[in-house]
């Protein structure tokens, strides 16, 4: 009997509470009565399912070229110098915009509107700007390279290749680009084969190409697989952490002058999946040096003087770590390092590495698992693109003087950066 009475009492309390909540909700929305903070809370809770539904719908609609902006994000702008950047972003699902703007005051200097015939998430990545304000661009990994003039008119299209990752220009403004070969039947990824014991395996090949900036004609074209084979470096294939895509080159930096350590016309090729930078001489098809060391999955190699390279060290695994959480864990684990990305330089003179402005990266937890860029503004100042999060940084003498994102047309989201170039 006691159990029945207790159940009945609880039922009455629940029914009364629900009735009270419904009554409060009704009058909170009708505003016949004022309930102050309680009324506001009830209206918020009542609206929450709709807000959540709209948020889910918005996320589902937005392509991956937009990044959710943290609600507590705080920007910094203490720049005392102009920093001109060339940036590409999604303005509409079937449209991309490339802008030249000043990071210091966000002044727009020029823009180009480019139609997107591909999927909503396909990106224009790392466009290049020429001295006459013409522009070269591609949709990363899906198109060839197109050149347009200052007004957006097409000058030429190079469709014999599929461009991916970076484009750089040499002293003659000819273009060095990472690419795949486009064959008659379409885009061929698996171009290279090798024997591993009794197994025949296929993998992705990359090519480096040089294009005439006036005509778009291919002036030089070299397979990475052939380059390694012809320089007795095929064994590097076994060092990769991704046998399907063993090289994954992401940048080609041309040498525009002679120095004691490189010749004009040499190129430095960044291979993410080999965690190596290849110094190559196209003139005689010679690999001068394969640079590897305490860096992993690096991007954006630059020549900053006659004996020094600079690059963005992602400091990560090629493939995402897979922990077997089902197995027991030690109660006394051995704690190793806390890895962040960093800026690294390499001396061609002494064959030594140096981590630059490391404290800023550690303090601010700057890390991007993929992509990422660094460009030196002067001897003590660096522009950094923390690509995965979409945060842009300018660091000077171990101090953050700029931190922000590229605001988008979607509230609460910012643009995913697509390898922004500093225009000097």
Beta strands, count: 31
Strand content: 35-45%
CATH superfamily descriptor of the largest domain: YVTN repeat-like/Quinoprotein amine dehydrogenase
Q: Can you count the helices?
A: 4
Major sheet attributes? 5 strands, antiparallel
The first-level CATH class of the largest domain is given as Mainly Beta
The main sheet orders its strands as 2-28-27-26-25
CATH domain fold name of the largest domain:
Methylamine Dehydrogenase, Chain H
**Given the C-alpha coordinates, what overall shape results?**
globular
How is this structure best described in words?
With 424 residues, this protein is of the alpha+beta class. It has 2 domains: 2-58, no CATH class; 62-318 and 340-422, Methylamine Dehydrogenase, Chain H (7 Propeller), CATH 2.130.10.10. The chain is built from 4 helices and 31 strands. The strands form 8 sheets. A 5-stranded antiparallel sheet has the order 2-28-27-26-25, with no helix packed on it. Strands 10, 11, 12, 15 and 16 form a 5-stranded antiparallel sheet that branches. Strands 5-4-3-31 form a 4-stranded antiparallel sheet, with no helix packed on it. The model has no long low-confidence stretch (mean pLDDT 89).
């Amino acid at each position: 009997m006691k159990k029945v009475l207790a159940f009945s009492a609880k039922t009455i309390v629940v029914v009364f509470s629900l009735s009270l909540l419904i009554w409060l909700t009704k009058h909170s929305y009708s505003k016949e009565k004022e309930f102050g903070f309680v009324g506001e809370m009830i209206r918020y809770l009542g609206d929450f399912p709709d807000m959540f539904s709209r948020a889910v719908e918005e996320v589902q609609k937005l392509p991956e070229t937009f990044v959710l902006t943290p609600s507590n994000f705080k920007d910094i702008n203490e720049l005392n110098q102009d920093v001109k950047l060339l940036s590409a972003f999604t303005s509409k699902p079937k449209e991309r915009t490339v802008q030249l703007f000043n990071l210091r005051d966000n002044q727009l200097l020029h823009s180009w509107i480019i139609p997107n015939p591909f999927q909503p998430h396909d990106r224009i990545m790392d466009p290049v700007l020429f001295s006459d304000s013409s522009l070269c661009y591609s949709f990363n990994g899906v198109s060839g390279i197109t050149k347009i003039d200052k007004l957006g008119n097409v000058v030429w299209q190079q469709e014999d290749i599929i461009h991916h990752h970076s484009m750089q220009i040499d002293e003659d403004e000819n273009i060095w680009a990472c690419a795949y070969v486009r064959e008659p039947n379409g885009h061929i990824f698996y171009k290279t084969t090798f024997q591993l014991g009794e197994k025949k395996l296929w993998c992705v090949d990359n090519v480096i190409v040089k294009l005439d900036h006036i005509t778009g004609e291919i002036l030089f074209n070299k397979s990475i697989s052939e380059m390694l084979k012809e320089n007795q470096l095929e064994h590097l294939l076994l060092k990769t952490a991704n046998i399907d895509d063993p090289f994954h080159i992401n940048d080609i930096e041309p040498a525009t002058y002679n120095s004691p350590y490189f010749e004009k016309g040499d190129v430095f090729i960044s291979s993410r999946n080999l965690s190596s930078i290849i110094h190559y001489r196209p003139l005689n098809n010679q690999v001068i040096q394969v640079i590897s060391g305490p860096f992993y999955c690096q991007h954006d190699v630059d020549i900053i003087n006659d004996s020094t390279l600079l690059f963005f060290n992602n400091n990560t695994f090629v493939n995402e770590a897979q922990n077997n959480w089902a197995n027991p864990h030690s109660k006394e684990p051995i704690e190793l390092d806390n890895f962040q990305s960093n800026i690294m330089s390499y001396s061609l003179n002494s064959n030594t590495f140096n981590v630059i402005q490391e404290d800023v990266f550690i303090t601010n937890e700057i890390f991007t698992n993929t992509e990422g860029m660094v460009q030196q503004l002067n001897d003590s100042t660096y522009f950094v693109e923390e690509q995965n999060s979409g945060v842009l940084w300018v660091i000077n003498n171990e101090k953050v003087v700029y931190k922000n994102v590229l605001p988008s047309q979607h509230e609460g989201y910012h643009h995913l950066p697509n390898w922004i170039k500093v225009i000097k």
